[in-house]
Amino acid sequence: MAKTDIEIAQEATPLKITQVAANCGIPEEYIEQYGNYKAKIDYKFLKDNQDKPDGKLILVTAITPTPAGEGKTTTSVGLTDGLRKIGKKSVVALREPSLGPVFGVKGGAAGGGYAQVIPMEDINLHFTGDFHAIGAANNLLAAMLDNHIYQGNELRIDTRNIPWRRAVDMNDRQLRSIVDGLNGKSNGYPREDGFDITVASEVMAVLCLSSDITDLKERLGRIICAYNVDGEPVTAHDLHAEGAMAALLKDALKPNLVQTLEGTPAFIHGGPFANIAHGCNSVTATRMALKIGDYVVTEAGFAADLGAEKFVDIKCRMAGLKPSAVVIVATVRALKYHGGVKKPDLNQENLEALEKGLPNLLQHVSNVKNVYGLPCVVAINAFPTDTKAELDMVEAKCKELGVNVALSEVWAKGGEGGKALAEEVVRLCEEPNNFQQTYPLDMPIEDKIKAIATKIYHADGVTYAAGVKTKIKKLTELGFGNLPICMAKTQYSFSDNEKLLGAPSGFKITIRDIKVSAGAGFIVALTGAIMTMPGLPKVPSAEKIDVDENGRISGLF
Fold first, then answer.
1. Are strands 56-62 and 295-299 parallel, antiparallel or unpaired?
2. Is residue 66's pLDDT more than 90?
3. Does residue 189 contact residue 181 with C-beta atoms inside 8 Å?
4. pLDDT of 69 over the 90 cut
5. Annotated catalytic residue, options 45, 383, 480, 507
6. Of the candidates 493, 480, 466, which has an alpha carbon nearest to the alpha carbon of residue 521?
7. What's the confidence (pLDDT) of residue 105?
8. Distance from C-alpha of 94 to C-alpha of 60, rounded to nearest angstrom
9. 92 has which bridge partners?
10. Which of 211, 417, 452, 466 has a Cα-to-Cα distance from 405 of 20 to 30 A?
11. Active site residue 106
């Protein structure tokens, strides 16, 4: 019987984290240990090494996800181990898992098989407490806001116009829309309220995009948490909240260092959920990795229409990063799903369905090459059920677009199974590229949204729900017109309708609401029926997770 991911992780013999740090050139003075196998690295390390040259940055993205899975994190880890196998000094920079998917349906985000980061249980559960700190800072601002109203409302806050919501790192649909402050004057002012999952909090984006503690505090102060009766913004700074929020986040801002099963250094810090957030790990972690690795592999959430677009248009733009190459992860099984095959039948060869599903992959490839201007390779995350005819078809179709295909066997073989992909990535990193963003910042807000919808999603255009264009006009008048756009869209389709698989055409993107994340520095456009608080499935993964009398956890994946 094949070993589970958690069994493989638990059988590993990890290096002490001090050894991992020493191996990649991080002196002991910057290390803050959390037990033997994980540590935070002081952000002063980055400041003290700012004159060191950066390594090459490689982005791992994927096709539109399906229930069949793609294995983006697994590929990122295996590629980094593969780069070491061919003699390259490599580091991986990943996003932290949210408890929502861990206990929901998707599982954790520590990779799989023999391409994992460890300690897997810690990473997938509380880790170093970053998400708890983010949730606490978010909810401190909410508490101070409502307390200000209760204590006389000197800022004249309009209680019907409070966009700031509370946060919890759990899939809990019951909390999406609530009424609080009930049962008498002493319990506050009754109003409509709600919760977002912690990863959708603006505080998460602020932490991930801040360059240092000073920048963090300034960004927190710019957060718009409410509007007054004249329609003017009320910020966290107006409530004198940013200092205490920053105090809660001062350790969370420090990147987390762990390792792969093969002892390769791995930074894991912030940033999941590219469907409702910007979906990238922290700028600080990426910059640290670039100082200690000649090749740095990072990932962005979901497919290249979501995480990669936000990586390019938000993270790279704000941090001045320039990637050298892109890896697009796909599986034959997922492509057949896009071609109409039901999940139980995905293990059977079906060239007709594969050909029908391939346009999804090819559209992502075209976007990366022609819109972002970056060289890319398609990594086929291998399954034992893939046939030679199916693999040959994928390779042939990609070569028509001038893109190579590399078979990735990292799940079964670790770094050894990633050597072919690593060789191709090294080759691509030496190629010149024409890296560019999807749109210029000085475009009007509506034009930027249209650029993403038409260039990246291949939509026919954009429609706006009642009142949204008025909000856009107001945001422009308030001086936010030059910010990038963070689209909140289903991850299951290029469109805003999750049932439209493959590479759909003849659709329009519907913007149902829009808001500014002034601290993070972007405008959030909510499309279709996307939710900022997911719910649990009928049979949540939490039902299978257990711990024995020795504290050994089972059921995580």
1. parallel
2. no
3. yes
4. no
5. 383
6. 480
7. 77
8. 10
9. 266, 297
10. 452
11. yes
Annotated catalytic, 109?
no
How would you classify residue 210: left for phi > 0, otherwise alpha for psi between -120 and 50, otherwise beta? Answer: beta
Annotation says 38 is catalytic: no
The predicted pLDDT at position 1 comes to: 61
Q: Distance between CA 414 and CA 117 in Å, rounded?
A: 11
As a whole number, mean pLDDT of residues 269-288 equals 89
d(CA 219, CA 125): 28
Distance between CA 500 and CA 488 in Å, rounded?
17
Which H/E stretch holds residue 292?
helix 283-292
Residue 274 catalytic? yes
Average model confidence (pLDDT) across the chain: 94
Return d(Cα 326, Cα 377) in angstroms, integer. Answer: 7
Q: Which two structure tokens, joined as six digits, stand for 66?
A: 């399906």
Q: Is 411 a catalytic residue?
A: yes
The one-letter code for the residue type at 13 is T
Cα 504 from Cα 547, distance rounded (Å):
44
Instruction: Measure CA 423 to chain center.
Output: 26
Amino acid at 541: S
Q: CB neighbours of 202 closer than 8 A, spacing ≥ 6?
A: 138, 223, 517, 519, 520
CA distance 116 to 124: 12
Active-site choice (110, 226, 274, 459): 274
Whether 74 sits among the annotated catalytic residues: the reply is yes
Does residue 557 carry a catalytic annotation?
no
CA distance 89 to 67: 34
Catalytic residue status for 527? no
74, 198, 284, 527: the catalytic one is 74
Note the pLDDT tens digit of each residue in 465-491.
999 999 999 999 999 999 999 999 999
Supply φ then ψ for residue 264, to 5 degrees. Answer: -75, 135
d(CA 550, CA 101): 26
**What distance in Å separates the CA atoms of residue 102 and residue 284, rounded to the nearest whole number?**
25
Residue with tokens 């892109």: 326
For the record, the structure tokens of 317 come out as 């733009």
Three-state SS at 473: helix
Whether omega for the bond prior to residue 14 falls within 30 degrees of 0, making it cis, is: no
201: Cα separation from own chain's centroid: 13
Is the predicted pLDDT of residue 15 greater than 90, yes or no? Answer: yes
Q: Are 253 and 246 in contact (CB under 8 A)?
A: no
- Return d(Cα 557, Cα 554) in angstroms, integer: 9
Catalytic residue among 38, 88, 106, 471: 106
Which member of 95, 217, 356, 489 is catalytic? 95
